[in-house]
């Protein structure tokens, strides 16, 4: 265990806690976390996970913008879910990204967990994109990813990181419940506003 794993633990937990609460501050805290995990994962030989952190950084930048200025009249995106076509696009993206990454990892790295590394990377990229769009179903994908990551990190001796992802699992469940509640409350406010008009 080194300083990057400890700092990654702290910033990661803070980022997801802010995200569960729907706070825009999850993005800058997350960006610090991604840099720390790039260092950690490269040293552990989890190359796809390291590359994933770079993409997370870019998606966090986009998410920060979308949450602030996206949506109708540039007032920020609202809690929603993808359309069936968008959901199918996400599923296809997972399959294509995972297959491509697995091939690359087998061919060009010494990864001992290429399949799992590729799958979790593909799922995480898609979940991060969904999160950036404020799609509630992103939490279901994070729950599945966390259930895979925990034993993967244990197998690599990253005990603190595995514990962090156990915390993430609990926070992902809380996030799902909290975002569903926030959407119900927003829908009720919108209906009440329509009635008043």
UniProtKB/TrEMBL annotation:
It is a multi-pass membrane protein. It is found in: Cell membrane. The keyword Lipid metabolism does not apply. Keywords: Cell membrane, Membrane, Transmembrane, Transmembrane helix, Transport. The chain crosses the membrane at residues 34-65, 85-105, 135-154, 160-179. It holds the Pfam family NMN_transporter. Belongs to the nicotinamide ribonucleoside (NR) uptake permease (TC 4.B.1) family. NCBIfam families: NMN_trans_PnuC (TIGR01528). Required for nicotinamide riboside transport across the inner membrane. This is Nicotinamide riboside transporter PnuC. It comes from Ponticaulis profundi. The lineage of its organism: Bacteria, Pseudomonadati, Pseudomonadota, Alphaproteobacteria, Hyphomonadales. The gene is pnuC.
């Amino acid at each position: 265990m080194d300083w990057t794993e400890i700092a990654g633990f702290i910033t990661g937990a803070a980022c997801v806690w802010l995200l569960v609460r729907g706070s825009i501050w999850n993005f800058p805290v997350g960006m610090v976390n991604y840099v720390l995990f790039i260092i950690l994962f490269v040293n552990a030989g989890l190359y796809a996970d390291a590359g994933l952190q770079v993409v997370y950084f870019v998606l966090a930048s986009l998410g920060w913008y979308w949450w602030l200025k996206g949506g109708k009249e540039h007032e920020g995106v609202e809690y929603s879910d993808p359309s069936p076509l968008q959901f199918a696009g996400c599923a296809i993206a997972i399959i294509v990204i995972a297959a491509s990454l697995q091939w690359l990892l087998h061919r060009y790295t010494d990864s001992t967990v290429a399949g799992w590394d590729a799958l979790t990377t593909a799922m995480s990229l898609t979940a991060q994109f969904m999160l950036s769009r404020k799609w509630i179903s992103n939490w279901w994908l994070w729950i599945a990813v966390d259930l895979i990551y925990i034993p993967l990190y244990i197998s690599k001796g990253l005990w603190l990181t595995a514990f962090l992802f156990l915390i993430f699992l609990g926070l992902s469940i809380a996030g799902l419940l909290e975002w569903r509640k926030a959407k119900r409350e927003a829908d009720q406010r919108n209906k009440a506003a329509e009635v008043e008009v």
